[in-house]
Amino acid sequence: MLRYQLKGKIMEDNLWIEEKIEIAKTIEEALEKLEDKALFVVDQVLFDQTPSLQDFLKDKENLKLFASEQTKTLDTVNVLYDFLFVHDAKELVAIGGGIVGDLAGFAAATFKRGIPLTLVPTTLLSMCDSGIGGKTGVNFRGVKNYIGSFKKPNKILIAKDFLLTLPEKELKSGLGEIIKYGLVGDQSILDTLLKDEFNLHHLPYLELIVKGLRVKHKIIKDDFLDEGNRNILNFGHNIAHGLEGYFEGILTHGEAVALGILVELKISEEKLKLNQEVFKLVENIMIKYNMNTKLKIENLEEVLYYIRKDKKNDSHLRFTLLMDVGRAVIKEAITEEEIKRHMESIMEL
Fold first, then answer.
1. What secondary structure, in 3-state letters, does 240-251 show?
2. In a 3-state reduction of DSSP, which class is residue 332?
3. What is the pTM assigned to this prediction?
4. For every one of its 349 residues, what pLDDT tens digit does the chain have, with 9 covering 90 and above?
5. Domain 167-346 class, CATH top level
6. Beta bridge mates, 324
7. 190, 280 in Cβ contact below 8 A?
């Protein structure tokens, strides 16, 4: 049961079946709900800029990590294993964005064949997307999330005030996934983003987060292991993983997803007759929030290398495409020539 507050009214929704999601009013309220005897892994940058987090952790066993795609590896997992082993971990709490959550989740899933896990997502991306759903993973030889497992958190605590600590780049990253949820499941998300009165720093983020959680739950509730309809959530991600590999350390995940969405909308127009107005709508949203809609790509073959490594592929490249807003088609076979042709939609000429 998820409890959340919208427009001053407490509402309840059976949003999650096995994971307990709580939304706190403040960072301090979220921290007060955590077990003192747990072990804590926390993002170092977040720790340095959050006095209340420093106070909370001063008398608790904790491990601080510099979170990046470059450190999201088995080497860092081994550091986590040592931390858990030395302190005889019974429960792990991860405080940070999606990378910290992935590392902690993978370690918690595999240490002693599984220990309890609590997530405190602190970025927009992790609040609305990567913090839930149970997927954990690390990068391998530059390929994103190539080694991983499934681990449902025992509890998730969301404090919207963490968003106040984020730079614009991280807010835009979260918007990439929020746009995806609007396309695959809830058009009202797109309608909200288009409203004139909103800008990047004044959006109803809690409402958007909850709507994203609702869409994700509806899609994965009968396909936790990602063998069927959960593939819907892969929309935009095949191209995104190629861009993330090529622009390693430059593009965030959500920025890459937004750009991937633009390309995959163009492919959807050609293969599934998607209305061209959908592309224009998404492009207008991205422009409104000053998100990148174009990139300079000098070596398209390198982008294709990472796309070929996507886990969803078999003997073909398998994409999720759209017939219409809210109507996705999964596991569509795509050729490299189609990708090259439609990559032009985001490439600076």
1. HHHHHHHCCCCC
2. strand
3. 0.91
4. 344 443 333 344 444 434 588 999 899 999 999 998 999 999 999 999 999 999 999 999 999 999 998 999 999 999 999 999 999 988 999 999 999 999 999 999 999 999 999 999 999 999 999 888 889 999 999 888 899 999 999 999 999 999 998 999 999 999 999 999 999 999 999 999 999 999 999 999 999 999 999 999 999 988 988 889 999 999 999 999 999 999 998 999 999 999 999 999 999 999 999 999 999 999 999 999 999 999 999 999 999 999 998 888 888 999 999 999 999 999 999 999 999 999 999 998 6
5. mainly alpha
6. 327
7. no
Structure tokens at 244: 């993330």
- CATH 1.20.1090.10 domain range(s) in the chain: 167-346
**CATH architecture group of domain 2-164:** 3-Layer(aba) Sandwich (3.40)
CB 345 within 8 A of CB 263: yes
Q: DSSP assignment of 139-185, as one string?
A: EETTEEEEEEEE---SEEEEEGGGGGG--HHHHHHHHHHHHHHHHHT
